Give the backbone structure.
Amino acid sequence: MSTDDRCLLPADSASTRDTLTVLLHGAIDTAHAPVPVNDGERLLFRQWFAAPLRLDCEGRPRPAVAEAWTRDSSGKTWTLLLAEHAGVSAGELASAWQSRPGAVAALRWAGMETVTPLHPSRLVVTFGAAQDSVPAVFADPALSIRLPGDPRPVLVPFPTAGSDLRDALDRGVDLVPTDDPTLLEYAGRRPELTTAALPWTRTYGLVLSPTRPPLLPSSMTDSSAFRDALARDAVPVSARGAEPPYWWEDSARCGITGSGKPPSHEAPEETVVYPQDDPVGRALAERIVALTHDSRIRARGLDAGELADALHAGSPRGVILALPRNPLAPCREMAGWAGGGHLVPLVDVRATLILRRELPPLTVDWDGAVRGVGRSP
Amino acid sequence: MSFRTRLFIAFAAAVVIPLATLAFGVRREMSHRLSAEYQRRVRGAVAAIREDLTRQRDNIATRLAVLSDQLSRDNRFRLAALDGDPATRRFLLDYAGTAMRLSGLSFLQVQDTTGRIMSSGHFRNEYDQRQPELSRFLFDAAEVPALVRARTPEAALLTLARIETFSVGGNSFTLAGGVELDEGWLRMLSRDPDLSVALVLPGSEPATDTRDVVEALPVAFLDLLPDTRAQPDTAYLVVTQSARTLAALRRRVDAWSLAALAVTSALALSGVAWLSARVSRPLRELAEKTEKIDLDRLDQDFASDRPDEIGALSRLLGAMTERLRVGAGRLREAERRVAMGDLARQVNHDIKNGLGPIRHVLRHLDQVAGERPERLAAVYQERKGTLESSVGYLESLARNYARLSPEIGREPCDLNEVVLAVAGSARRPDPGTMRLALAESLPPVAADRLVARRIVENLVGNAVDSLAGLPEAAVTLTTEAARGDDGGTLVRLTVADTGPGMTRSELDRAFDAFYTTKPGGTGLGLPIVRRLVLDLDGALRVDTEPGAGTRVTVELPASPALKER
């Protein structure tokens, strides 16, 4: 089985359905396109927009807008050969990037120095540092362009009513990405449904304040048994102990030594804070609190702004963070919390896709996005 | 203090003191009853709380019994607890949370015999921690209310807890559960809004006022927070009846008591005032009538038909007044008779006063004729005025008596001239001096000049006579203008001597006719002076003391015509 085959979802090759319904999480705002801000937008935008290349479920680069890519001997200059079916020239692609601040920022975070349309089908990108493999930034949604034609099959949002997602399954929704064990158990009891584990997309870590005593002994938190136990017992979703390599350990090359914000004078708090709407973050914070033998230490949920402030201030004893498992721009991700303290990896989590058995072939990208494998002319 | 005032005070005391005593007694009795009532309410609240706790504990025990029965028959629990089956471990970890919510508890924990937490509802992720003291405590406190302070991820949780034991596969497990004790629960316990219930944990003090009514219900307590001793202790449910309400009630009772006392006292005092005025009015009327009685006004009517003591007193006063009236008539008749004798003696005295200067001049002339005859004519000329003045005086005297007119002439009269005339003709103290201190621009007095001279001559004569035989003697005559009590102008004449003065008894008799201490005196000088001064609407005052001389002051009204001028 090829890598791509491993990323294909169970399907009925004979199916001719060209429209599938999908249960989306989060509000959809097309103004965000092509860069999604939630899982729902990621699913929808991925089928209409494409970056020069894509990463499959195992993180391997696959052709997209670029059908091939080459590097020079230094590893700094990469030439993208644009696919004819993409319907875009190298000059148009370069102009599109330059007109979008998000695209420019993504390239700069990746170390890009120049973008040169060498030929209508050849785009040369030069980086400041040598790249051993094709830079993942070429798969960044920020570099995506609208593809001609319609995706086949096309995914459309399933109108939900009520909070019980089992009702959506009963009413015929085709795809449901979820981490709800109850829903997964229900799907397992329905013969017309099957499930497929999506890639490990998120890693939870504990940021320890550099100026406060550690919450737990490092001998405990550094052990894989500790991480595995957390994944097995503490969190309510499909999880595993966080596995190396950890991309943030290569942060030196980003040249980030702090958050860039002035030092804070917030009073220290005996808290372990977590994103307040994140049940995994909450479960991990509670387990950390349970393992400490200090009744003053409490778990506390914060909204995104408060969490960022707390991370910057270093006032809590610990901060539970949810990070992308395989970020396309590690330095950009790291800028969000670098300098907040030492990051202890805890667990990797992933969602599971519930899908009907008779669906046409679908493939999964590195970030869990699902899309059809064909396009209409 | 008036009789009416005394009467008022007596009546007021007789009314107000009993009223105040009554108010004080009522207030005290009410306060005692209120305090007892409050204490009874607090004790009742404690009894009700004890019943509530028992009911709650029974309720918790019932729920735990159902849960333990269900759990002991659950195969997933059996597999997870006995075999460590990974497939059912998540069920075990999540069990307590689900069961806790379903059973309406706020605290639930499954432990094995070693005290290891197998599943925790209030703190899902504290699994595998050890808390054997919880089971021990709840077993020991099986018969009494037991409070447990447990840990949750966010805060401490205080619960009323119980424990249940169940067995699976020959192994014992415990199910400890409870309901949260929060402010709402405490409020519900108090029921009565005037009562408050507070939980006082070991090491803390109840926040109550020392005046509050307090009852405390002991409950067993275990603190499971990690850094505490985790030793059984005693907490207290303290029921408090705020003293503020009682104090406010007492204040209201006091205010109403005082208001009632004030109103009643005011009414009583008004009645007392009216009564005392009514009782004292006949006496006051008698006093007013009595005050008006003198020898010239004996016509007051004391007739009364009152049958009481006041009527009797009034009639006695009427009888006394009648006797006075009779006596006064007799007295006036006697005075008339005496007045005739007075007149004769006065004529004699006045003539002697008129002849005195003539006799002195004649003696002087006789002395000059004998010793220095060549000066006789000159001396005669010098003393001729005195002779003529004395003769004129006698002639006027004779005319006045001849007219027998009681009226005295009222002409503007310069008293300084009269004083100078008298001083010029009067005998001198021997040895001694006569000093004059006469005011300038002295207003004239409204008096007959002859009457004024008689007054001055009598006073000067008495003064000179009193100095006889004294080594250092002086007579001082002073005139001055003064302001009378009615605002009118007075002329004041003072004749002062340095003589022996008078005793009190002598002064008392000095104005009696024919009383004299001088050899050859008539005893009519001062009486005549007083009568003449009074006839002129003047006033006479004598200041004397034995050894300190005598000072006679005469004040005569100034002449109106001259005053205007």
About this structure: The first strand of chain B starts at residue 107 and ends at 112.
